[in-house]
Amino acid sequence: MPQSSEFRQESAVDLRAFIRDVPDFPKPGVLFKDIMPLLGDPAAFGFAVAELAGHYPAGGIDVIAAAEARGFLFAAPMALALKKPLVPLRKPGKLPGETHSFKYDLEYGSAELHVHADAIRPGARVLVVDDVLATGGTMAAACKLIELAGGSVVGCAFLIELAFLNGRAPLVGYDIFSLLTY
Question: Is 68 in the active site?
């Protein structure tokens, strides 16, 4: 694996020690994986970003994209480390100018993502980043939006994967990498 990251640490960090379990959030019966302790520790955060970025050879990626909002937290430093452009995928009304959009269904309703029409050149190889892979709906929509904009998704990268929610199912055919799996 390439070690091409300014965030690379001298020694490994136990990232699980920085993920806090919060029972009954956001609703009863849910065990929420809180990443705020990781974000609050520069060494752990830097290590996580380095490990995510280090999984991908910079030459195989043209662009890094992320859906708002927590995906931005990992995609932005990865883009800097790999020296690649960052393309934010935003909710309706957040981007000025012409956009491509993709509507998708959620468990209780629907959502929509937008990307600037000129953000992804045709054939661009795009790595899509998010903090957590849960049910896979948002990442699947992000991948479809990238493709609609003319890009090719080369991978989907996550800090955490909640395997029991089967979020890989909507992402069949895409390369998936997760640092931590629960």
Answer: no
Q: What percentage of the chain exceeds 90 in pLDDT?
A: 88
CA distance 128 to 64: 6
Among 8, 68, 70, 112, the one annotated catalytic: 70
- Alpha-carbon separation of residue 98 from 94, 117, 118 (angstroms): 11, 6, 8
CB neighbours of residue 39 within 10 Å: 16
63-67 vs 125-133, strand pairing mode: parallel
pLDDT tens sequence across 100-144: 999 998 777 899 999 999 999 999 999 999 999 999 999 999 999
Other Cβ atoms closer than 10 A to 168: 16
- Burial profile 111-147: b = 16 or more Cβ within 10 angstroms, e = fewer: eebbbbeebbeeebbbbbbbbbbbebbbbbbbbbbbe
Residues contacting residue 14 through CB under 8 Å, at least 6 positions apart: none
165 and 139 in contact (C-beta within 8 Å)? no
Q: Is 70 a catalytic residue?
A: yes
